[in-house]
Automatic annotation (TrEMBL):
<feature type="domain" description="RagB/SusD">
    <location>
        <begin position="306"/>
        <end position="484"/>
    </location>
</feature>
<dbReference type="InterPro" id="IPR011990">
    <property type="entry name" value="TPR-like_helical_dom_sf"/>
</dbReference>
<dbReference type="InterPro" id="IPR012944">
    <property type="entry name" value="SusD_RagB_dom"/>
</dbReference>
<dbReference type="GO" id="GO:0009279">
    <property type="term" value="C:cell outer membrane"/>
</dbReference>
<dbReference type="InterPro" id="IPR033985">
    <property type="entry name" value="SusD-like_N"/>
</dbReference>
<comment type="similarity">
    <text>Belongs to the SusD family.</text>
</comment>
<keyword id="KW-0732">Signal</keyword>
<dbReference type="Pfam" id="PF07980">
    <property type="entry name" value="SusD_RagB"/>
</dbReference>
<feature type="domain" description="SusD-like N-terminal">
    <location>
        <begin position="110"/>
        <end position="229"/>
    </location>
</feature>
<dbReference type="Pfam" id="PF14322">
    <property type="entry name" value="SusD-like_3"/>
</dbReference>
<keyword id="KW-0998">Cell outer membrane</keyword>
<keyword id="KW-0472">Membrane</keyword>
<protein>
    <submittedName>
        <fullName>Outer membrane protein</fullName>
    </submittedName>
</protein>
Amino acid sequence: MKKILLNISAIGLLLVAVSCTDVLDKQAVDTFNEQLVFSDMNVVNAYLGKVYDRMGGNTDNGILGMREDILTDMTDQTLCIHRPSNFVMLKGTMTPDNLGHFTNDGLGGYLRWNNLYSNIQDANRILANIDAVPSVNQDALKKQMKGEAYFIRAYDYSTLMMVYGGAVLKDTQYKLDDDFTTAKRSSIKETLDFILKDIQSAIDNLPATVEQGRANRAAAGALKSRVLLFCASKLTNGGWTEQASNTLISFPAGSQTALLTQARDAAKDVMDGKYGTFSLVGTTSEPASPLSAADIQKYADNYFSIFNQKAAWNSETIWGIEYPLSGGNVNNMNIWSGPNGYHNWGNNNPTEQAVRKFEMADGSKFQWDKYNPGDMDVRTATAEELAADPNRNPYNGREPRFYACVLYDGAPWQARPADAAGLEPENKVQTSYFFHNVGDATPWKSGIDTRQGLIEAWNGQKTGYNLRKLLDPATAGQYYRNTNAWI
């Protein structure tokens, strides 16, 4: 009996040992080393997806796509109302310790070379290992993913080049024991040649059509034209006189014409369908002259629709970023930039200077002082004068793009939320102030979309305008996320 009991005990201990091994010896599902990543095509695909997210910077959203603060806030075209943004850029006082609005993660990826190189390292890792990943009948997918990695590396290097000029070029992944002291920047010409080689590799490996949101052959072709056009600019061809001979930021003398020709030819390749078939949406014939109000609205709607695509994209779209509600990157453009009278945050205000650049519907230049030469600040008109000439209203008779891009005083927009409907029942943007008499210092009524309005006044615009382009008229930003794509 004793012997039997001992044997049973031994068997029990063995079972416990085996059981413990099975339970505890598990692979982590929240972290992966390189060996695990490149042992499964599904994991490699997920890894590539994260590299997409980080294009242009080592943050979850990189620099591409919708942002609370858009890049034009660094210029005199739009104004960020929540943070001082462009003064460092416009005054030329930017330093490594004071990047202005580029300090935050949303825009910092444009200037932080360490973030860009981190993503380049990830692309290099994919290119170095993907051929050895076990797979069955997935050669086409491997080829496509190679093309995507080449495309991403080219895009990130193009961002480095546009900011810094010549970059440290690396087409293999760094190892911990590498000698980093020998790394040196290449000339801007060598950097361009490196990028163009990557783009060609992307073109050679990418299919013409692919799952929406992933890079296709035409996206690589379009990137080629974009990069060449930048390199053909005056800036990189002696425009900075004191640095005209600096090969890190200037091309050899006499390069500009050839670069312009290459940029043109690369764009034409995309337009001619060399990499895939695309076609314009809407009316492509010569517009009527003069344009009727209905014509203007039709063209405005067509232009606006480019930036309001959801689900399947139209035949004009080469590449973009999706924003499904189910997850992934987040697009909240309506609440970020919509008028405060809708409980939105009112950011990214078009400036008066930018608004005045939009032409009249007949193609003539807009002149603020047309009716009172020399007065560039005020336009006045009586009811009788407006009836006789509606264009005395500065927002009447403008070109279609104006109505697609700008929410101006009196612009039709969404139905007001319940607590604002009684204050402004016509569902029109109200960025103006109302005075009893000309010359009064204090308004008797402030528009609901102003900084003296009754709905979240602290989010009111500062220029008289809100952004319309990139917003979605069907989304109540106060409650819901946007689903329109970044194109």
